[in-house]
Write a structure and sequence with these properties.
Keywords: Signal. InterPro entries: Glyco_hydro/deAcase_b/a-brl, Invasin/intimin_cell_adhesion. This is NodB homology domain-containing protein. One of its GO terms (biological process) is carbohydrate metabolic process. It is globular and about 65 Å long. The N terminus is likely disordered. It is α/β, with parallel strands linked by helices. The chain starts with a helix and ends with a strand. The chain has two domains: 222 residues, Glycoside hydrolase/deacetylase (TIM Barrel), CATH 3.20.20; 77 residues, Immunoglobulin-like. Helix 4 crosses helix 5. Helices cover 35% and strands 22% of the residues. The strands form six sheets. Strands 1, 2, 3, 9 and 10 form a five-stranded parallel beta sheet that branches. Strands 4-5-6 form a three-stranded parallel beta sheet, covered by helices on one side. Strands 13-16-17 form a three-stranded antiparallel beta sheet, with helices on one face.
């Protein structure tokens, strides 16, 4: 009898233990799958690329700055395409604060992309190889000289390109992204073409919130990875900007994630993209100069040890000659330092100082 009682006790204890294990196991299963489901939701956020066209900057002014100010205030990422010959030496001082901007994660907010040399239609459609090659490379060089950066993405003026365009792009190893290219480059080229266009403008320079929402809802079932929204901020007045703001608010409410073309390319090619080190520039305040003062080197330095370059926003006051600041006349100018990086270092944030010449 005692043996039977002991055996029953062991059996009951085993049942209870297994029941508790089952509860724990089920709880673990539930928790683990909840985490997996949550992670899946986070990974599957719809990415939004703001493809903003026709940027320019001359004489210290740019019509697109109200839009840039809004995006900066909301820390919204956007890709901005410049028409190269519509920029002058003042462009860097205008856009440096935006190009330096980061979000709360330390991620770059704005990407500059290649939007052609002169934007004369058709610049990259039906033109011969030599013409397209010259325009592509001249624009690349001019933007590099003005902004001290390397572009990686391309969008043709009027979204018109041909097979020759793709050949030209593929010959420059710095370019990894095209937007709305038709035809797109061959998959073997390694160039990613972003399509999935969802119109937010009903005509060039005319954003329309209600029209966009209809377009968005009609496409969200098929465009599940990303959408590309094209806009022309230089043409936007107060009402157009307000329509754009409503579009952004809607996308935020939808839980969308704003991204940059080249950043997206790097994220899906992380195994082949080597991380680079950061670098910083040290650039002290400038003392007041006289008109007859000799050329001088402000001795700005990059933590990488790479050479720092200078830019003057007002060529009537000062220019850059052989890497030094050359006084031209009385007035004020903004001197901006830059270091665009190399295979080991990312580009440094721009640092600017005001130079006064009496």
């Amino acid at each position: 009898m005692k043996k039977l009682v002991a055996l029953c006790s062991l059996l009951i204890a085993s049942i209870i233990a297994n029941a508790n294990f089952g509860i724990k196991r089920d709880n673990f299963f539930l928790k683990s799958h909840t985490v997996l489901f949550k992670n899946k939701l986070e990974k599957n956020k719809l990415k939004i690329f703001l493809k903003l066209d026709d940027f320019d900057a001359k004489n210290g002014n740019s019509a697109a700055t109200p839009t840039m100010d809004y995006l900066l205030s909301k820390k919204i990422k956007a890709a901005i395409g410049f028409i190269a010959i519509r920029c002058d030496e003042s462009a860097l001082s205008v856009y440096a604060p935006y190009l330096n901007a980061k979000n709360n994660k330390g991620e770059q907010l704005f990407e500059v992309w290649h939007h052609g040399l002169d934007h004369i239609n058709p610049e990259f459609d039906g033109k011969n190889y030599d013409y397209q090659k010259a325009h592509f490379e001249q624009a690349d060089k001019l933007m590099k000289d003005l902004f001290r950066l390397q572009m990686h993405s391309f969008g043709a003026p009027f979204n018109h390109n041909d097979a020759t365009t793709n050949t030209v792009i593929s010959e420059n190893p710095n370019y990894k992204i095209t937007m709305f290219n038709k035809p797109a480059a061959d998959s073997q080229s390694g160039i990613l073409n972003l399509e999935n266009r969802v119109n937010m403008e009903i005509a060039t320079g005319k954003p329309d919130y209600e029209a966009f929402v209809k377009n968005y809802n009609s496409k969200k079932g098929s465009y599940t990875d990303y959408m590309v929204l094209q806009g022309h901020p230089k043409f936007w007045k107060a009402e157009e900007l307000n329509q754009f703001i409503k579009v952004i608010d809607f996308l935020i409410s939808e839980g969308c994630e704003f991204d940059l073309p080249y950043n997206y390319y790097q994220s899906i090619n992380s195994k082949t993209t080597k991380p680079k080190q950061t670098q910083k520039i040290t650039f002290d305040a400038l003392s007041v100069k006289k008109i007859n003062d000799l050329d001088f080197d402000p001795k700005a330095k990059a933590s990488s040890g790479l050479k720092v370059l200078y830019n003057s926003s007002n060529s009537t006051v000062a220019t850059i000659l052989d890497g030094k600041i050359h006084i031209v006349g009385a007035g004020t100018t903004v001197i901006t330092t830059s270091q665009m990086g190399d295979t080991k270092f990312n580009s440094a944030d721009y640092i600017s100082q005001t130079l006064k010449v009496d």
